[in-house]
Amino acid sequence: MRLEITFVNNNEFYIPINYKLGIQSFIYSCLSNSLALKYHEHEKNYKNRIYKFFNFSNIIGSYHIENKCIKFLGKSKFYISSMDKDFIYEIYKSIYENKILVLYGKSFVIDDIKVIYEHFVDGVITYKCISPVTVYSTLNNKTIFYNPNDEIFKEKIIENIKRKYYAYFNEEYNLFINVYNFKKVKKGIFYYKNMSLEGYEFEVKINTTKKVHELIKNCGLGSKNSAGFGMIEEIKL
d(Cα 218, Cα 2) in Å, to the nearest integer? Predict the structure, then answer.
């Protein structure tokens, strides 16, 4: 399930260009204490890996950048998605009632909020990224990032999907998943808390079951999904 949130920057505020922590903090502020605690500390895990099963996009709209800060112009929007309907409904209720998006202490007026219900099918779907996908491994305290030109990038994407699938559905992940035909690849360097992350936006084809399509559409590809990495949307052909 997905929310589309449209806001207006009437006061022409600037916020940090690496604003993902601000959106994540806003999301938690919309939740009840019990649900926020669940997602902040106690979400599902698989082999000591924690998965929170929510995701959010970049802010989409016109903007101006100055001194490592960004000002969004006119109407802008972003998406929040989750496998958990209660999570989506609590955020919707909070935003609908307060009509305000607060980022880094600055208040933006909500213009519109929509709940998007989606239908999933088996087979091939072409996706595009609406936030960067980050794929990496850590060896001897050194982080190694991979890019879509590396075969290991695809392997780790599939491995990550299978782990999430098992953690969420508690089912064995003997699944058919084919990830291929990466196009329009764009690299970026992003900062989240004290971490520097290499991420990529691209178009890609994924052939799998409708259950897996639902999972990746709501939870994202790669790592750091709850920090706003890896959100995808279907390209309607």
Answer: 7
Q: Which residue has the higher pLDDT, 134 or 38?
A: 134
49-102 pLDDT per residue, tens: 678 899 999 999 999 999 999 999 999 999 999 999 999 999 999 999 999 999
Looking at the chain, the number of H-run helices and the number of E-run strands are: 5, 15
The one-character DSSP state at 109 is E
For 15, other C-beta atoms within 10 Å of its C-beta total 19
Q: Find the angle CA(141)-CA(146)-CA(149) to the nearest 5 degrees.
A: 160
Q: H/E element holding 98?
A: helix 85-98
Q: Which of 232, 210, 208, 206 is nearest to 219 (CA)?
A: 232
* Type of residue found at 81: S
Coil vs helix vs strand at 187: strand
Structure tokens at 85: 């309907």
Report the distance separating Cα 161 and Cα 193, nearest Å: 25
Instruction: Identify the three-state secondary structure at position 95.
Output: helix
> CB under 8 Å, gap of 24 or more: what pairs does 117-121 form?
117/1, 118/1, 118/2, 118/214, 118/217, 120/210, 120/211, 120/213, 120/214, 120/217, 121/210, 121/213
- DSSP states of 120-161: --SEEEEEEESS-BB-EEEETTEEEE--TTSHHHHHHHHHHH
